Amino acid sequence: MLKGVSLSVPKGGITALLGGNGAGKTTTLKAISNLLRSERGEVTKGAIIYRGTRVQDLVPSELVRKGVIQVMEGRHCFEHLTVEENLLTGAYTRTASKADIAADLELVYSYFPRLKDRRRSQAGYTSGGEQQMVAIGRALMSRPETILLDEPSMGLAPQLVEQIFQIVKSLNEEEGYTFLLAEQNTNVALRFAHYGYILENGRVVMDGPAAELRENPDVKEFYLGMSEEGRKSFRDVRSYRRRKRWLS
After folding, report:
1. Is 234 found in the same domain as 188?
2. What's the pLDDT tens digit per position in 76-122?
3. Owning domain of residue 166
4. Total number of domains in the chain
5. How far is Cα 135 from Cα 214, in angstroms, rounded to an integer?
C-alpha cells in the first residue's frame, strides 16, 4: 500500500525509485502505468499527471500510445516466439509503415547487438541478460517517451547489470528517453540516475540529486552498507533509529 507518494520525473532524465523488497517500488510503477487494476488495486487519492494531463483513468494501451510504457520485473518474454518476433510485438500499438518499424528494429539492434545475433532464437532459450535486453528492446519498439523500468538488475551477474545500465544511460543521453527505474541495487542505480527517491513501507522517506544521496550518511550506512568504520551488514547497521525517525 502506498501512502501519499509524491514524485516528479523530469523529461529527459533518469530518476531512480529505491528501497528494499516490499517498499512499494513496483506498486508505484504499476500505479503510473495503470496496471494496478489487473491486481484489483486502484489509486484512491491524488492524481497521476503526464505532460499536464491526468492519465490514471486510461487503459494501459492508451497510455502506451501517449508515450509511457513499463518494462515489467522478471524479464517477461513470449518464450515460444523468436527474439525478433518478441521485439516486433512492441510495435503493435503503432500505425507505422514497415520501413519505419524496420528502422526502429535496427536502432534496437544497434544498442543490443547481442539480440541481432540471437534474433532467430526462441526467447525462452536465451539467457537472463538477453531476456532483459529483449524486454527493454520491445518497449523501445513502441516509440515511447518515458520508460518505467522495474528491477532491471534482478537475477543478473554484476557484469551484465553494468552493461544494462550503460545501455540505459546511452539511450537517455543519445536518444532522449526518460527513465523512471525501480531498483533494489541502490549503489548502481545512484551511479547512473540523476535524481532518486527512497521508499520505505509505501512512503517516500528521502529524495534528492543522486550525487547527494550517494554521500548522505544514512543512505551510505543503511542502503549502501557503508559507514565511517567500513562495510557493515544490514543486521548491524545503526541507522535503524535514523530510519525510524524518517518515518515518524
Report:
1. no
2. 889 999 999 999 999 987 888 899 999 999 999 999 999 999 999 99
3. 14-77+134-215
4. 2
5. 29
∠ CA 202-247-197, nearest 5°, is: 55
pLDDT, tens digit, for every residue of 31-74? 999 887 776 677 778 788 999 888 888 888 899 989 999 998 87
Q: Which residue has the cell 527474439?
A: 83
Question: How far is Cα 63 from Cα 69, in angstroms, rounded to an integer?
Answer: 7
For residue 71, the SS3 value is: strand
In a domain, 181, yes or no: yes
Identify whether residues 167 and 243 lie together within a single domain. Answer: no
pTM of the model: 0.86
Q: Measuring CA to CA, how many Å separate 192 from each of 3, 51, 93?
A: 27, 24, 30
Residues 244 and 148 in one domain: no
